Structures are given as structure tokens and as C-alpha cells.
């Protein structure tokens, strides 16, 4: 494994060669090279998170990054990639001037990819991209050094930024690739050129921008257009669009494909799922061999993500025994199934925080997770209820009301006792709910906080889910904080 010199991700000359930009110093002759050669240890597009030694890329997005050059150098930027040198940039500040800074960032990304000899995995899908990225970080980390973004950096700047940060010596790179519209994934996957490309699932999401789920499948299948020579497609076997995805992968020249799922015929097949502790025990057939192992993250959907990650890891040469062991040590990411014990009068309740975003696929998965969790653990007297706290699923277009109403079937199947729901769209579910399942409907999520805090009792399992913009995460936060406050109260008396 090559040891990385973090001070030297981008030297001035490498960055200039990659972008074709002009090195100069603010206030100096723009045709002259900067006298002092610089070297950057990282790449940043946001002065609030910039680390000393980063090269600051002044993107024009919601705001123009050129307005923040002074902040960038105050924060310790090693240099700035700019399209112009604004008046307030410090005199003598090292600049790399290009025609278009987003193109410049993409150029850095391309050069970072070319000089790295590791394997790259691309991940897309209607839900589970970030979860799968984090699973891959753990799995591939059992074999070598892994580079992946800390956040959901999956768009037209997030993907090139992540790739531009790829250390020369990284053994593996993991890239989340997302989209709101058809055509957006193509340039991103062609930048990443993954050796393995995963589609986690295809389901209704962003239906506002699509006429049908099939169109979403087509958009997700774009990820195969960027596959490196010899690249492998990793496909969701149980998904209704599996045949379409497979066809598109073949047309794109995939050297092969591996499938994951629960149905017979999947290469990486989940045979049995049992909740265990904070995670789950999985039984799976992997490359013809049946095995059982513990996974640190609960949920059948997460088990699917894990099998997809194992399939991709295998495709890029990561040994599976270490990879499977690594699954035992992972834990759910914030708002993606993390559990917390909440102190309530007379015992504890369990919070399942699924509040990081929602669409019909992840909503169904979260309701399934609630159904798979037995209430009663925190009640000395025994007993407890399944409670669902639901915010709206947004960006669903004209299908929205019907997709909300339909949730009643999943809620009944999961033996949910009470539903607390917020927002206009959730009204459609509310009206369809059997009366004894109705907790409360409120205009917005904030209106649920008080009543939910009052209602939660020992032994209850409470699952919180909704689109980010529904703000239902506020209920999860309030529950966590109320529990902590209870504990503090006790420790003071
Ligand atoms: N394969 C899946 N199918 C359905 N829901 C999923 C899947 N993987 C994760 N989820 C759920 O979807 C939500 C978003 O997960 P995340 O991994 O952040 O997806 P993305 O990055 O695609 O938005 C979480 O609540 C998570 O538990
Ligand atoms: Mg994400």
C-alpha cells in the first residue's frame, strides 16, 4: 500500500497541468508563474468547511464562490481555482485561473482518477446510495485504504469534488451518484469510470420530473455508460426493472453482471433475516455457498444494500471473508435506522430514527423495520406499541396523494398500533387509516412534538420517517433530547 503524503494532493504544477489554467499571484502579471510554488493537501468549495492547506475552488452555484476568496485565504487556503481575480482577494494570493471553475474541478477529478491505480465503485439508486457507500467504506476497508465522501456528495459538483480529493495511493474509491432528471448521471459516471456500478433499487422518487418509474430506471441505468473496460454491473434482482437494467448494462458494454436480492436465482441471495441486538443476523447464499453472519445495521433493505456492496467488493477483487466480517462492526448512519433508548416515565422506549429523507421505497422499508421490531423491551411490566411518526414524502407530483394513501396497507401488515402524521399529503393516509390506528394528524411536524412526547410509554417502539423538507426529524430530535433530560433530572436528585 502506498503511504499518502497529505500535504501533497495537488502541487501547483500538477493542478495547472490538469486544468490547463494559468498560475499567477493576485496583483501580479497574470501571464507570469507565481513565484512561490504551492501545494494543496485537499480541495474545498466551501470556506466554512475549508481546511488550512486546501485549494479553494470558486464555484458559481447558489452564490458565486469568487465573493468568498478573502474568507478562503483567511481560513488558510493554499491557493484558489478561479475564473477571475476579484478586488478583495489578498495581494499576492496564489491563483490558478481557468475559463470555468466547474470545468476546472472536473479536470482535477479526471487527473486524480488517471493517476490512481485503485478500484472505483459507483453507487446509484432511488434509495440506499449513502447507506451502501458507508457499507462499502467498511467492507473495502478490510482490505485496503478507501476514499469516499463524508456526506451525500452525489451531484454535478459533489461527484467531481469527491474524485478531485482521491489520494493517489488509495486502494479503493467509492462514489455516490444521484440525479433529479434524466441525463444527469451520464457525465458523472463518465468522470468516475467505475470498475463496478451498483443500482441499489428503482422506485418512485422525484416523480415530479419523470412520467413513469420506468423513466427513472432508464435514468439510473445511465450509470453503466461510464463503466471502465472490464467493468461489472451490480443489479437488484427482485426489482421489476431488473430486465431493463440488465439490458442497458449489456448495451453499455458491461463485461459482466452480478445480482443481489431475496428471490431464487440472485447471485448474492438473502435467505433469512432475523433482528438481533442493534443489528440483524443474516443467512445468505454467496457465490453458491450458504453462510450466516451478524450485520451491525438492521433492516431487510439494509441487508440488500450489504449484499450489493459484497457483490461489488467481490467484483473489484476485495476478499469476501474479511468483507463479511467487517459487516458485523458497522452501525447505521444518522437518520438511517439508528436506534436510541429513550427514558420515559416508568421505563424506556425505543426510537428508530429513519428520519433522513423518504420516498415510497424507503418509507416501505422503514415501516417493515418497525414491523420486524418486537415492542416491550423497555417495560418492566411487559407490553408496548409500535408507533409510526410520519412526515410527508415530497416531490412525488400528481401521484403523491395516492402514494400516501397506499401506506395504510404496509402499516397494517407491520402491525403498527398508532400513526402520528403531519402535512397535507399525509391527510390522504389519515383518512384511510382504521380509526383505532389514529394517533394524531397535524398541519406540520412541529405540531406532533408535544403530543408524541406525551404519548410515548415504556416498551413502545417509535419509528420516525419523512422527507427532509417535512422536518419530521424534529420529532426524533425532541424524543432524544427529552430522554436525555430525564436522565439528567434523575442524576441531579
Ligand atoms: N435499498 C433500500 N430500499 C429502500 N430504502 C432504503 C434502502 N436503503 C436505505 N433505505 C432507506 O432510505 C433512506 C435514505 O437512505 P440513504 O442511504 O441516505 O439513501 P440515498 O443516499 O439514496 O438518499 C433511509 O431511511 C434508509 O434507511
Ligand atoms: Mg444520499
Count of DSSP strands = 22
The biggest sheet amounts to: 9 strands, mixed
CATH superfamily of the largest domain: Mur-like, catalytic domain
* CATH fold naming of the largest domain: UDP-N-acetylmuramoyl-L-alanine:D-glutamate ligase
Name the hetero compounds present.
Answer: adenosine-5'-diphosphate, magnesium ion
CATH architecture level-2 label of the largest domain: 3-Layer(aba) Sandwich
Categorize the overall geometry. Answer: globular
Query: How big is the Rg?
Result: 24 Å
Determine and state the CATH class of the largest domain.
Alpha Beta
Discrete helix count: 16
Describe the fold and architecture.
With 493 residues, this protein is α/β, with parallel strands linked by helices. The chain folds into three domains: 6-101, Udp-n-acetylmuramoylalanyl-d-glutamate--2,6- Diaminopimelate Ligase, Chain: A, domain 1; 116-327, Mur-like, catalytic domain (UDP-N-acetylmuramoyl-L-alanine:D-glutamate ligase, 3-Layer(aba) Sandwich), CATH 3.40.1190.10; 338-492, Protein-Tyrosine Phosphatase, Chain A. The chain is 33% helix and 22% strand. The chain contains 16 helices and 22 strands. The strands form four sheets. The chain has a nine-stranded mixed sheet with strand order 9-10-8-11-12-13-14-15-16, sandwiched between helices. A six-stranded mixed sheet has the order 17-18-22-19-20-21, with helices on both faces. Strand 20 (418-422), helix 14 (426-432) and strand 21 (438-442) form a beta-alpha-beta unit. Helix 7 packs parallel to helix 8. The longest helix is centred in the C-terminal third of the chain and has 20 residues, at 473-492. The model is unreliable at 1-6 and 485-493 (pLDDT under 50). Magnesium ion binds at residues 129-130, 152, 154, 176.
Amino acid at each position: 500500500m502506498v503511504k499518502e503524503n497529505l500535504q501533497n494532493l495537488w502541487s501547483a504544477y500538477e493542478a495547472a497541468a490538469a486544468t490547463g489554467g494559468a498560475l499567477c499571484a493576485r496583483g501580479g502579471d497574470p501571464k507570469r508563474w507565481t513565484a512561490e510554488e504551492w501545494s494543496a493537501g485537499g480541495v474545498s468549495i466551501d470556506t466554512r468547511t475549508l481546511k488550512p492547506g486546501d485549494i479553494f475552488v470558486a464555484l458559481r452555484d447558489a452564490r458565486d464562490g469568487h465573493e468568498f476568496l478573502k474568507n478562503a485565504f483567511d481560513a488558510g487556503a493554499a491557493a484558489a481555482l478561479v475564473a477571475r481575480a476579484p478586488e478583495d482577494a489578498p495581494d499576492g494570493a496564489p491563483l490558478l485561473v481557468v475559463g470555468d471553475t466547474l470545468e476546472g474541478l472536473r479536470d482535477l477529478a479526471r487527473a486524480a482518477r488517471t493517476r490512481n491505480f485503485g478500484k472505483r465503485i459507483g453507487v446509484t439508486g432511488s434509495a440506499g446510495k449513502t447507506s451502501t457507500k458507508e457499507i462499502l467504506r467498511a467492507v473495502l476497508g478490510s482490505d485496503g485504504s478507501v476514499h469516499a465522501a463524508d456526506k451525500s456528495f452525489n451531484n454535478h459538483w459533489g461527484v467531481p469534488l469527491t474524485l478531485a480529493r482521491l489520494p493517489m495511493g488509495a486502494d479503493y474509491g467509492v462514489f455516490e451518484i444521484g440525479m433529479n432528471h434524466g441525463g444527469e448521471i451520464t457525465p458523472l459516471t463518465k468522470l468516475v469510470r467505475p470498475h463496478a456500478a451498483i443500482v441499489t433499487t428503482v422506485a418512485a422518487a422525484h416523480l415530479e420530473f419523470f412520467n413513469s418509474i420506468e423513466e427513472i430506471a432508464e435514468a439510473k441505468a445511465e450509470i453503466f455508460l461510464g463503466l471502465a473496460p472490464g467493468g461489472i454491473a451490480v443489479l437488484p434482482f427482485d426489482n421489476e426493472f431488473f430486465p431493463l437494467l440488465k439490458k442497458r448494462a449489456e448495451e453499455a458494454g458491461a463485461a459482466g453482471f452480478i445480482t443481489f436480492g431475496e428471490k431464487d436465482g440472485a447471485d448474492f441471495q438473502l435467505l433469512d433475516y432475523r433482528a438481533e441486538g442493534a443489528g440483524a443476523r443474516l443467512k445468505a447464499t454467496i457465490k453458491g455457498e450458504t453462510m450466516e453472519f451478524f450485520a451491525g445495521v438492521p433492516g431487510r433493505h439494509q441487508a440488500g444494500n450489504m449484499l450489493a456492496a459484497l457483490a461489488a467488493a467481490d467484483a473489484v477483487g476485495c476478499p469476501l471473508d474479511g468483507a463479511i466480517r467487517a459487516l458485523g462492526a458497522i452501525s447505521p448512519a444518522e437518520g438511517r435506522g439508528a436506534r436510541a433508548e429513550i427514558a420515559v416515565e416508568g421505563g424506556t422506549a425505543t426510537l428508530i430514527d429513519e428520519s433522513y429523507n423518504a420516498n415510497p421505497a424507503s418509507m416501505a422499508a422503514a415501516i417493515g423495520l418497525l414491523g420486524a421490531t418486537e415492542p416491550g423491551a423497555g417495560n418492566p411490566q411487559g407490553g408496548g406499541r409500535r408507533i409510526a411518526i410520519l412526515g410527508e414524502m415530497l416531490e412525488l407530483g400528481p401521484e403523491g396523494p395516492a402514494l400516501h394513501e397506499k401506506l395504510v396497507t404496509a402499516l397494517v401488515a407491520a402491525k403498527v398500533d398508532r400513526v402520528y402524521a403531519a402535512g397535507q399529503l399525509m391527510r390522504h393516509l389519515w383518512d384511510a387509516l382504521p380509526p383505532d390506528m389514529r394517533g394524531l394528524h397535524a398541519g406540520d411536524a412541529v405540531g406532533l412534538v408535544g403530543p408524541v412526547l406525551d404519548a410515548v410509554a415504556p416498551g413502545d417502539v417509535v419509528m420516525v420517517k419523512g422527507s427532509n423538507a417535512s422536518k419530521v426529524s424534529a420529532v426524533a430530535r425532541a424524543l432524544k433530547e427529552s430522554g436525555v433530560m430525564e436522565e439528567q433530572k434523575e442524576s441531579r436528585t
